[in-house]
Amino acid sequence: MGMTDPSRRKALRAQYEQTRPEAAVYRIVNNQNGRILLGSTPNLASVRNKLEFAKATSVYSVLGPRLTKDVAAFGIEAFSLDVLEVLETTPEMTPAQVLADLATLEELWREQLDPALLY
Q1: Which of 19, 30, 54, 114 could pair with 35 as two cysteines, CB 3.0-4.6 Å apart?
Q2: pLDDT beyond 90 at 56
Q3: Residue 34 CB contacts under 8 Å (≥ 6 apart), including other chains
């Protein structure tokens, strides 16, 4: 049996196509000084994985250059991930539509935040 079974392959492919990545607006918060890195992503799991990878391996460059100085000063444990809003996507949406909608949502969130606290 295994992976060569055509019905099993078909079921796995259908399951893959139905489980779209979670698109969201998020913030990474420095809990020591209150500063925020606001972002959006078509794949929230990848952001979670990067933060977990950074915590597990002490390789902080995966979080981007804007956080490097504060990670060095406060340690990676000072940072947490907050999901601000999940974008409802449909199979009909193109990747470009998802990105455009995420950019709009991120801008709406950015308007609510104190610019002095943003990385």
Answers
A1: 30
A2: yes
A3: 117
Give residue-wise pLDDT tens across range 99-117: 999 999 999 999 999 999 9
> Domain of 50: which CATH number?
3.40.1440.10
Tell whether 14 is covered by a domain.
no
**Which H/E stretch holds residue 117?**
none
pLDDT of residue 109: 97
Q: How far is CA 82 from CA 9, 14, 31, 58, 94, in A?
A: 36, 31, 11, 21, 26
Max Cα–Cα distance, the chain, nearest Å: 59
What tokens were used for 109?
Answer: 């969130």
For residues 67 and 79, the answer to whether their CB atoms sit within 8 Å is: yes
The pLDDT of 13-38, averaged and rounded, is: 88
Containing domain of residue 42, as a range? 21-117
Instruction: Assess if residue 60 is contained within a domain.
Output: yes
Per-residue model confidence (pLDDT) at position 59:
86
Contact indicator for 75, 58 with CB cutoff of 8 Å: no
Q: Is 23 exposed, middle or buried (0-12, 13-18, 19+ CB in 10 A)?
A: buried
Q: Is residue 35 part of a domain?
A: yes
